[in-house]
Amino acid sequence: MSWQSTSTWKASADPDFMTKMHRILDLYDHPPDNGRVICVDEFGPLNLMPRKGKAWRPAGSPRRLRATYNRRHGVMHMLAALDLTTGKIHYRIRRRKRHVEFLDLVKALRARWPEQKLYIVADNFSPHRHPDVLDWAAANDVELVFLPTYSSWLNWIEAEFTALRYFALNGTDHRSHTEQNAAIAAYIRWRNARARPKTGLATDSPIRTWTHYPAKIA
Question: What is the mean pLDDT of residues 179-208?
Answer without folding.
Answer: 93
